[in-house]
Design brief:
Layout (H helix, E strand, L loop, with lengths): L2 H4 L37 H8 L4 E5 L2 E4 L4 E8 L2 E7 L2 E7 L5 E6 L4 E4 L10
Antiparallel strand pairs: 1-2, 2-3, 3-4, 4-5, 5-6, 6-7
Length: 125
């Protein structure tokens, strides 16, 4: 690809997500569910690895289905607070800190399934 035909790579042009720089037909007709920006060109192997991560359909905040793996996840809320999730047939309870961040999940026996810690301002440890 000749970058000179598209413009400069020195921030001369605005970044457009969902529309090609030279497109005259407007924005694509669909949704963009993920955007990643890199400060370098990815190798072919890196691109293929990203493309092979699977496809997940997000129906709403209560339900999603990983069509690649054939696994559905249902989320359960009490008001606006996430309290449990069922991934396939496995039910896990969600434990949150005083700010609403998830700090642990436990299975139906009460055993810890996963934990998460945060630094100040929400950065993951």
């Amino acid at each position: 690809m000749n970058l000179g035909a598209l413009g400069s790579v020195d921030n001369t042009y605005s970044l457009r997500i969902g529309r090609a720089y030279l497109a005259s037909s407007g924005y694509h007709k669909g949704t963009t569910d993920e955007v990643r920006l890199y400060n370098r060109a990815l190798t072919l192997e890196e691109i293929q690895g990203l493309a092979g991560q699977g496809t997940v359909h997000y129906v709403n905040r209560y339900y999603e289905k990983d069509v690649s793996a054939g696994v559905a996840t249902t989320y359960y809320y009490q008001g606006s607070r996430l309290v449990a999730l069922r991934k396939g047939s496995a039910l896990e309870y969600v434990h949150q800190d005083h700010l609403g961040g998830t700090i642990a999940t436990t299975n139906t026996s009460g055993a810890i399934a996963a934990t998460q810690e945060y630094y100040a301002f929400g950065e993951l440890r």
